[in-house]
Amino acid sequence: MLTYALRRLAGAVPTFFIIVAASFFLIRLAPGGPFDQARRLPPAIEANLRRAYHLDDPLLLQFARYAGGLLRGDFGPSFKYHDFTVTELIWGGLPVSLTLGVGAMTIAVIAGGWIGLAAALHRNSRLDHFAMGAAMTGIVVPSFVVAPLLSLVFGIYLGLLPVGGWHGWTNAVLPIVTLSLPQIAIIARLTRASAIEVLGSPFVRTARAKGLPERLVMMRHVLKPALLPVLSYLGPATAGILTGSVVVEQIFGIPGVGRYFVQGSLNRDYTLVMGVVVLYASLIILFNLAVDLLYRVLDPKLGRAA
Amino acid sequence: MAAAAPRGRSLWRDALRRFAGNRAAIASVGVLATIALAALAVPLLSPHGRDTIFWDLMAAPPELAGWHPFGTDTNGRDLFVRTLHGARISLMVGIVATLVSLAIGVTYGAVSGYLGGRVDALMMRLVDILYALPFLFFVILLMVVFGRSILLIFVALGAVEWLDMARIVRGQTLSLKQREFVEAARALGVPSLAIVRRHIVPNLLGPVVVYATLTVPRIIMFESFLSFLGLGVQEPMASWGVLISEGARSIDTAPWLLLFPGGCLAATLLSLNFIGDGIRDALDPHDR
To answer: What's the rounded Cα separation, in Å, for the pair A95 and A102?
Structure first.
């Protein structure tokens, strides 16, 4: 188990390096620079600024310096938010983004699992058809359509929830719902498919035949194997929620990490963009790793082999 | 001539019959065809131009008197016409980028699966690495770097969506190459590339068609996501994402600006998904 974990972790290192290198050189290719303004700076001042931020060094040296900083946990200074380091900016936004992400993920797994299981138990009933139709709709309606609609209905028409800002838990409701809807839908579909398979398997028939109450059959025999595919979907789900947060944070005006990405790349705030990419990439990699490890623990077919 | 011989039921004829029995899929074909035809025939459906400005109608609600069935946007342009022009862009991006992803994914997967061995392991390892990348972020960076040309959108979205296709195709190829007709071709001295092209790829058609149908809506969604962030197609062109982002800004005063393009987008994506599922069930009824 430990060797497997270490091997996977070692395998993640080149992936991580590729992500850092690709995004570093890509953003440097972009025309314009962080000090472009409507009024041009005098050349001497611009040259000084570039020197101060080491932008006049050869690109490879800059990359080496950046990578070296990363290894020490230093993301460098932000080019646009003066007097702030990227680390400070990210630490400021991270709790907010994590609240949204963890909230959305929790709701998605619980609600999606329930809906999928219910649909599988009443397969081809009206409930099943309705739930799966709704799930399909949930998958295809993008968050940037859902978010404004939710704020229109619950914020403006009903006046129940705030439509933007970050002052209390009420601010988190709409963004979390927006982020979780497509994931609920996907997880419901996954759970339904795997639960149908599990329900048809011999050990469930045996459990029913020996007279176990239906509730116990569900809890002891169906739930765990039916949720295994959901577990392996959690990696992609993290990526989906992180990507979604870019748009959702922008729509609801939430001071998280996601909004820095688009702003940063339009402003050519090189280090800030890199910081967000590095953070998100590491979250995705680590989460995938955790999920794989958990999978090996939970799936009896794999656990022994390791 | 055996003209009287009973016609066999071919795979495709069977599939067509099953597809025709799938009500959701047939209805979806209808919806999609309507949207596509309307997009092609905009000039026949509305007297207004895409960029005509109605100075006395800014953000006006839908009205049939002046033939503004979707209302007008905040600049006084007819939303019906703009939505249908948006359909052109969104559908075109969806189809072209899917073709790009098809070309890359099928070639990569077929070559990897057919060659097998160390090459295969290496090629699939690369796919594994690419899988872990947060792709949308790279597309966003690409857009920022190279400017927002529609050509780049095709290529960039196609280039990030080929991984699943490559995996599916590789898996199928691995099992196909064990089959007798491939062995026969090899025995006859047909070169590898020709075997891949003539014998492997045509037999991959089923899963590839299914997966491609499901890729189109994903790409359309990606494109509107980019456009929503202001990184997709630019004025005066308008994809659904652009219209939705304009609508989202005036959601409290003119909700129809979001509802109509958003509704069209949702209807299109829903139809494409139902059609994809329908084709899958028709080709492989065991999978249900």
So the answer is: 10
Residues B131, A284: Cα–Cα separation, whole Å: 11
Instruction: Name the nearest CA neighbour of A218 among A228, A229, A210, A207.
Output: A207
Assess contact for B282 and B212: CB atoms under 8 A: no
Q: Which residue has 């940037």 as its token pair?
A: A144
C-alpha A45: how far from chain center:
40
- Mutation test of the interface with chain A: which of B125, B137, B231, choosing the one with the most A Cβ atoms within 10 A? B137
Half-sphere exposure in the Cβ direction for A61 (13 Å, CA): 6
Rounded Cα distance between B231 and B259, Å, is 22
pTM attached to this predicted model: 0.83
What residues pair up with B77 in beta bridges, in sequence order?
B53
DSSP state of B77: B
By residue count, chain A amounts to: 306
**CA dist., res. B229 & res. B239, Å (int):** 12
pLDDT digits (tens, 9 = 90+) for B219-273: 998 888 888 888 888 777 888 988 998 888 888 888 888 999 999 999 999 999 9
Give DSSP secondary structure letters for B208-249.
HHHHHHHHHHHHHHHHHHHHHTT-SS-TT---HHHHHHHHHH
The distance of B7 to chain A (nearest Cα, Å) reads 35
Could you tell me which of B204, B205, B200 has the C-alpha nearest to residue B179?
A: B200
Helix (H, G, I), strand (E, B) or coil at B53: strand
The CATH architecture to which B14-53+61-287 belongs is Orthogonal Bundle (1.10)
Q: What is the 3-state secondary structure (H, E, C) of A7-20?
A: HHHHHHHHHHHHHH
Helix (H, G, I), strand (E, B) or coil at A33: coil
Q: Is the dihedral of CA B179, B185, B191, B195 positive or negative?
A: negative
Question: For testing the chain B interface, which of A26, A140, A181 should be mutated: the one with the most B CBs within 10 Å?
Answer: A140
Please give the DSSP secondary-structure letter assigned to residue B69. Answer: T
Task: Tell me if A30 and B225 make a contact (CB, 8 A cut-off).
Answer: no
Question: What sections of chain A are H helices per DSSP?
Answer: 2-29, 43-52, 59-71, 86-121, 126-140, 143-150, 170-199, 202-209, 214-216, 223-251, 258-267, 270-298, 300-303
Closest CB from A142, A148, A280 relative to B137:
A280
pLDDT tens, residue by residue, B202-213: 888 888 888 898
* CB-count exposure of residue A160 (10 Å: 0-12, 13-18, 19+): exposed
